[in-house]
Amino acid sequence: MSRRQFHIILYCILGIITLILTFLVILSFDAANETANWSFFNFDFTSKDNIISAYGGLLSGILSFITIMFVVLDLVYQRRQATFQEEEKIKERKTELKSALGVVQIYVERLYEANIKQATTAFEYSAKELEDSTEMNRMSFHPNTYPSLILKLDNTLVYRGFLQFKPGKDWEKLYANLYSVADFYNKSTEEMMQKHKIHLDKKYSHSIRISVILDELIDSVSELRNETIASYGGDNPLLLTDTAFQILNDFKEATVAITEARNQQIEDGVPTDEISNSISDFRENIVGPLFDGIMSIYRQDNLLSPQLNNLLSKTQIFLRQFEKLIKDSKDYASHIEYYTKEYLSAESIYQEKLNEINLALSNIIKP
Q: Which tens digit of pLDDT belongs to each residue from 122-156?
């Protein structure tokens, strides 16, 4: 029984009882008027047995009817109490379901915002990796536990909430998208972090190998330079006319310049993470000119000494590994850029699904 029905029945019964009591009062005054000059509690009903009998019979019937009305009223009240308790349970269930959807809405909104933040960071990282592919660029990951929090919610309770409030015409699709998108981000975020760690480890190992090759090349150049000086004699002016020696000497001076510049930064208190560890400087200013110089000698003489041929071989190894390092880094940067556009940016289909769910639930949750 609804509250409205209860009130209608209650007012009807009370109205009937009021009418009966009014009629009873009027009838009592009419009976009292049978006694001339009557006063309260001073009635003379001598020789009026028929009136008393009729009045008593009528009063008995009226009181019995009123008693029945009160019994009916009590039954109606009990029925209303039972209905009221059921309504309270329904209200509590609706509140519980609405609260569950409120939690879902918060998690979905926070997941969307976390993805946008991660997208900004990922785009910045990708740009740095493309700009200087030999640097050990690192991408930070913003804390994002919202996918797992969504998946840990009671999916039956959440489904009943969608069923109860129906957020949109295609609410079943919204419900399915909620869990499919949350599951995707829960797995892909972990996968993205693992791939980034693998990339950094691989890049670090590759950089170490290139550094070893560079050290060996520097040692070989230094050894050949010293041998050339010894063969001419330290003060022989012909030494400066030797093309091979000039190339080797330029290599040494450029190496010393780069090393001293970095050491000076350390002495000046420049933070370690701001000092470039890139091997690009060595590629551009040392190894590249050495390779070009040796090749110019080869093109001129059509022949290289065994020592220069050995340096050329080591130079080529360095350049190949250097280019491979750059290619691997740029490929990874392109992958990050593609992944970010497809899955983390505001234009992503998955982000659009999250936004659609968020808006639908917000319309239910808002007062």
A: 999 999 999 989 988 999 998 889 999 999 999 99
What values do phi and psi take at 42, rounded to 5? Answer: -145, 80
Which residue reads 């309504």 in tokens?
Answer: 87
**Contact 31/55 with Cβ under 8 angstroms?**
yes
Integer Cα distance of 181 and 108 in angstroms: 10
In whole angstroms, give the CA distance from residue 45 to residue 54: 13
Contacts of 51 (CB under 8 A, 6+ apart): 31, 34, 45
Q: Tokens for 348?
A: 């992503």
**277 vs 35: CA distance, rounded Å:** 124
Neighbouring residues of 26: CB distance < 8 A, sequence distance ≥ 6: none
The whole model's pTM is what?
0.73
Q: How many CA atoms lie within 13 A of 335 on its CB side?
A: 10
Q: What's the CA gap between 96 and 154, in Å, rounded?
A: 12
Distance, in Å, from the CA atom of 147 to the CA atom of 251, rounded to the nearest integer, reads 55
Burial class (CB in 10 A: 0-12, 13-18, 19+), 263: exposed
| Helices and strands: H and E segment counts in the chain | 10, 0
